Amino acid sequence: MSACNTPLTVDLTGLRVAISAGAGGIGRVMADAFASRGARVFVCDVDDEALATCPHPKMRADMGETADCERFVDEAAAQLGGLDVLVNNAGIAGPTARVEDVTPEALEATLRIDLAAMFHCARRAVPHLRAAGRGSIVNLSSAAGRFGFPLRSPYAAAKWGVVGFTKSLSIELGPDRIRVNAILPGLVAGDRIRRVIEAKAQAQGVAFKEKEGELLKDVSMRTYVTQHDITNMALYLCSPFGATISGQALAIDGDLQRLG
C-alpha cells in the first residue's frame, strides 16, 4: 500500500465522532480510520447490507428525512456522551440529464440529501460541539462545488451550496472554537464514479473508455483519487494539526482543471 493510502498517523484517543452514511464506501473508510486512531465512532446509513457488516456503533437513518437527521445526531451524542466531530458524508449522485429533462422530484431529492441534510445535522450537533468547548464539522462537497458540471446541474448546485454553507458556518461558529471545513473530492476511484461516467457516456452517445479518458485528461496528475486520500484530509482537519484551519474548501483531486 502506498503512503498516500495509509491513514494519517495521529492520536485521536477519546474523540467523539459522528459520521453520516458511515457504514459503507468512503464513510466506512473514515469510520475505520478514526477508530484506528483511538476515536469513538457512531455512524448511520440507509444501506441495510452495509449496516449488517459495519463493526461500529450504528443506526439506520435516511438523511433525506429531517427527523432522521435529528435522531442520528441525538443518538450519536447519547451513545458517545457528547460530540467533538460531525462528518457530513451522506450524498447521492442525482440525475444525469439536460436541465429541461430533470424532474422537480429529482432536483428536490438531490438538494434534500446533498445539502439540506448537512444543515439539519449541523443544527442539531452545534449545541453538543459547543458544550465540548471546541469541535470540528467536516462537510463533503465535491469538485462539482467549484466547477460547472454539465448534465449534473442538481448535484453541482447542491455541492456549491455546501461550500457556501461551510464558509458561513465557520464565521458563525469561530468564536465557539468550532471549525468548519469542506472537502472537495475530484474523481474518486470506485463504483460510484464508474456509474457516473457510464451515465454521462450514455447521455453523450460515446463509449465508457472515451468518456473516462476525457475526464482524466483534465486531471494534471492523470489519476483518480482514493477514499484514503479523502479520509487522510478528514483526519488531519479533526486532529491537533488542523487546530486553526476553518472556513476552507479543500480540493483533493490531483489538480483537476475542469469537469466535463
Fold blueprint:
Elements: E1 16-19, H1 25-36, E2 40-45, H2 48-53, E3 58-60, H3 66-80, E4 85-88, H4 104-132, E5 135-140, H5 153-173, E6 178-185, H6 191-204, H7 208-216, H8 227-238, E7 249-252
Parallel strand pairs: 1-2, 1-4, 2-3, 4-5, 5-6, 6-7
Helix pairs in contact: 1-8, 3-4, 4-5, 6-7
Which strand order does the major sheet show? Answer: 3-2-1-4-5-6-7
Average pLDDT across residues? Answer: 94
The domain tally reads 1
Helix content: 40-55%
In short:
45% of the residues lie in helices and 13% in strands. It is of the alpha/beta class and 260 residues long.
Write up this protein.
This protein has 260 residues and is of the alpha/beta class. The protein has a single domain, classed as NAD(P)-binding Rossmann-like Domain (Rossmann fold), CATH 3.40.50. It has helices at 25-36, 48-53, 66-80, 104-132, 153-173, 191-204, 208-216, 227-238; strands at 16-19, 40-45, 58-60, 85-88, 135-140, 178-185, 249-252. It has a seven-stranded parallel beta sheet with strand order 3-2-1-4-5-6-7, sandwiched between helices. The protein starts with 15 loop residues before the first strand and ends in an 8-residue tail after the last strand. The relative contact order is 0.15. The mean pLDDT is 94.
